[in-house]
Design goal:
With 224 residues, the protein is α/β, with parallel strands linked by helices. The protein has one domain: P-loop containing nucleotide triphosphate hydrolases (Rossmann fold), CATH 3.40.50.300. Strands 1, 2, 3, 4, 5, 6, 7 and 8 form an eight-stranded mixed sheet that branches. The longest helix has 17 residues. The chain starts with a strand and ends in a 5-residue tail after the last strand. The chain binds guanosine-5'-triphosphate (GTP) and magnesium ion. Magnesium ion binds next to helix 1. One of its GO terms (cellular component) is endosome.
């Protein structure tokens, strides 16, 4: 696990906990992965977003309660088929994943299921996976646009042991709830110990990136 946990520390009173986790977003192109991240990190939405090239990196910190802060290091991958082979680089060592589909596009759930299978076979064995059915606003305004019934996706998520939310990056519905539910499921209590030690007290390597509270960058280009 690439989780890191700090008790107290500079600027943090003793008794507070700070944990850092790697999160990866996967899913078919145009389902709204980057839009969900943009909503979560900057509380913004673009009607016309360009497709991600390679992957984008962003961070966001949330307070779970008065004494627990969770920082997500987010890899927003590109859904276009030509970038598929890059994905293992981003989900390797991820603590959690959001697999996104578009509730108005039936094929996007099949693609999401394929990603879940790949994660369950090849990613970290304790990875926490959330399934997000995005573009909820489109069916709220026109129910005939719905291609995937909530109950169908919910049942699949239950069987595959996934968190499940229908979201709208456009209206922000359930976006914060999605990331908060993931944070609540992460192994915060096991992840204690000095900085640089992971959930099982195993050194995880050195993070050479500078610390920022809400930074963003890119691998192979960023469109955020
Ligand atoms: P790739 O980077 O190609 O993998 O796509 P992506 O999954 O990152 O999709 P992106 O966030 O770029 O969104 C694709 C399009 O869908 C954009 O035009 C967004 O404005 C639109 N979109 C994303 N989320 C929503 C949503 O919740 N509701 C609506 N109505 N449109 C959305
Ligand atoms: Mg994108």
């Amino acid at each position: 696990m690439a989780a890191r946990m700090q008790q107290g520390g500079p600027g943090r009173p003793t008794g507070t906990r700070f944990a850092q986790f790697k999160l990866v977003l996967l899913g078919e192109s145009a389902v709204g992965k980057s839009s969900l991240v943009l909503r979560f990190v900057k509380d913004q939405f673009d009607d016309y977003r360009e497709s991600t090239i390679g992957a984008a990196f962003l961070t966001q910190t949330i307070a779970l309660d008065a004494s627990t802060t969770v920082k997500f290091e987010i890899w927003d991958t590109a859904g276009q088929e030509r970038y598929k082979s890059l994905a293992p680089m981003y989900y390797r060592n991820a603590n959690c994943a959001v697999v996104v589909y578009d509730i108005t596009q039936a094929s996007s759930l099949d693609k999401a299921k394929a990603w879940v299978k790949e994660l369950q076979r090849q990613a970290n064995e304790n990875i926490i996976i959330a399934l997000a059915g995005n573009k909820l606003d489109l069916v709220t305004s026109d129910p005939s646009k719905r291609a995937i019934p909530t109950a169908e996706a919910e049942q699949y998520a239950r069987e595959a042991n996934l968190l499940f939310f229908e979201t709208s990056a456009k209206t922000a519905e359930n976006v914060r709830e999605l990331f908060t539910a993931i944070a609540q499921k992460l192994p915060l209590d096991q992840a204690s110990g000095p900085r640089g030690l992971g959930a099982r007290g195993v050194r995880q390597g050195v993070d050479l990136r500078p610390e920022t509270s809400a930074s963003q960058g890119a691998m192979g280009g960023c469109n955020c």
